Amino acid sequence: MQEIHADQEIIGKISAAGQLMQCSASLDILFLLDGSYSIGKGSFERSKHFAGKLCDALDIRPDRVRVGMIQFSSTPRLEFPLDLYQTKQEVKERIKRIAFRGGSTETGRALKYILRKGFPGGRNSSVPEVLIIISDGKSQGGTGMPAVQVKERHITVFAVGIKFPRWEELHALASEPTDQHVFFAGDTDDAANGLYSTLTGSVCSATAPGCRVESHPCERRTLETVKELAGNYVCWKGSQQPNAVRASLCPFYRWKRVLIKHPSKCFRTVCPEPCDSQPCQNGGTCVPEGLDKYHCLCPVGYGGDIHCAPKLSLGCGVDLLFLMDSSAGVTLEGFLRYKAFLKRFLQAAMGRDSPMNVGVAQFDNNVRIPIEVGQHKDAFSFMKSIDALNFGGGGTLTGRALRYIAQHGFRSTPVFADVWDDLPRVVVLLTDSKSQDPVAEAAQYARDRDLSLIGVGSSFVRAELAEVTGNPKQTIIYSDPQDLFNRIPELQRRICSVDSPEGCQAQSLDLTFAVDASAGVGLENFLRVRDFVRSSRLHFSINRDVTQIALVVYGSRPHTVFALDTHTSNSALLQAIDQAPFLGDSASAGSTLLHIYGDVMTVQKGARPGVNKVVVMLTNGGGMEGAAAPAQQLRDNGILVFVVVIGDAQRDILLKVAGSPNYLVHISSYEDLQYYQDLIIERICEEAKSPVNLCKPNPCMNQGRCVLGPGSYRCECHGWEGPHCENRVLRGDSPRSAVLPPHSHVRHGSSGWQHFSRASPHTKRH
């Protein structure tokens, strides 16, 4: 064992530098690996691991570092010469395959083998030669003379101890000065650092700027068995007289295992860390990232730059209104906590040149706006106004407050004489009490007036906040009162990201949920799945230009609850999902997928060409016989099938339906379904961002043929006409172009071809 007498910071720097070092030079390195019984198989494997780790610090290639290996025990055995492997990976893989041989520890014989054979596959002393002996130093033959002869040939010898090494013999084997050529294999990073430090300047290239080799006192220890006098005991000895014995005192010895200490010096390379200069200000904590990078963990109220400068101003221009619950439900203590939270937020976010305007409103039975948006331009006067706010008590009418704020919370103010501000308007709802009036319609009313809603509260009001914001990602949930203050940086990010939607909020998508409503699922579990669909809608921006959602429930027959183009808002979807019926008979997934292919994901029912399409099937795994072929038909037409199975089911059949393990999620129980929502939505969103084929599924009706063009498609119609071949050509009539609104993306060419180019996903449909 080896211990460097230095503080933990220095030890950490030595280890970090050891992991990053690389020796790139013309160099021949031969490992001499002890494979004797005194080492044992376990320590032999550790020796191999150590040799492999040292290779990480070597630039192994034919013109730079070459590596070979000899295993020795009773006799030496060449495992591989230096010229056999040309890459680091090949050498490391070969070292892993070396088998333990066992036998006596004949180190002297191994050294004589090297004296006779040289470095097998080496470059004949035209480049520096390094011998690395990995052994416990317990040789059963003489090593002194062959060790001297090896070093006389200008071979640099490193001796690395393994297990409980005999350090005296290792020092005799190693080159001078021995302090710089003897290491312990138990700490690979330290040993790599030591070996590199010794070779730096003479063989390897110089260390990185600022790095230096330092000397540290260290102590090497080994476990030895020694004979110890235990005392003198009475014993009986023979006498010259016949038939007589005599008593005497005899010494008694016992064997004892003791640690033998060998004081020494260890030379190691230490590199400066980025945190040495203490770059983080105002109580920030510096966290190093390698040898040249760091980041600061800043306290709340700081972080204006990477060094925790004071006054972390919001870098975005917004009109911001805090809607603070002052009802009896939050209690006086909670209200005072909200006031402290607002003051802390202002300290952190409201700088002298901050482009934001902030106000505060309170609500209980009534709504008040004691601090108008933009009334204060500095944090000090703002905080004095917050101190003057009084607790109201009374009921919690959140819905009424949201509607009032949408009407009266923001007043447009002129920036210049004839220019009015057009900043994003953000409302941050602070509450920990459930509303006593409905919030969904009031929140939708506010969002329809271009207000971005962010909800902050405990897990007690998580569901209600998600309903208010319309997007679970716009809710901030704190675990305890103190954690509320830790959420200030997250709130700042949410406020500044309201104009840049995340995930599927900005992606065009046609999405169909297929829900198993059979008797095998049961009414209670069906209602759980329906709630899952209900909450999933909040992750999408529902309108004609971004996301359209259809819902199909199925038993023995499928039933379309609503089509893709039926509902154009989240609130309308909410009411429609609640009307989805439980059917209660047997399940037929195959007929349902055929129904979705032919009667849901079609242009006639609102599917949009050039938009990604996903079917999410929620099932207990029943009725899947015959579903694989319709699922493949959907995939062949560019429609992804995502299978969510709850409970025990046959994975092989489900995998054929999903088409890939990436699109199959297995959940143990219906109670756990809610915990997989983020994963499922994330997978759907990934699909929404993938490239799309404008002709899949075929947008042309009545056997019309879709032909792709550069960024467009066109329909070839036979006996039909119109943008998608939807009108029959009557006999005797000449083909007529469809009457299209101005600026349409459709044109009628010769031979009945209809041509479309893909519009922006946010272009209004005519």
From TrEMBL:
Record flagged with keyword Secreted: yes
Alphabetical list of CDD domains matching this protein: EGF, EGF_CA, vWA_collagen, vWFA_subfamily_ECM
Ranges for domain VWFA: 28-199, 319-495, 510-684
Alphabetized UniProt keyword annotations: Disulfide bond, EGF-like domain, Repeat, Secreted, Signal
GO cellular component, one term: extracellular space
Keyword Signal included in the entry's annotation: yes
Entry's Gene Ontology molecular function annotations: calcium ion binding; identical protein binding
Alphabetized InterPro entries for the sequence: ECM_Assembly_Org (IPR050525), EGF (IPR000742), EGF-like_Ca-bd_dom (IPR001881), VWF_A (IPR002035), vWFA_dom_sf (IPR036465)
Domain EGF-like: from-to ranges: 272-309, 691-726
Assembly, per entry: Forms monomers and multimers.
Protein name as annotated: von Willebrand factor A domain-containing protein 2
Organism: Thinocorus orbignyianus
Organism lineage string: Eukaryota, Metazoa, Chordata, Craniata, Vertebrata
Name of the encoding gene: Vwa2
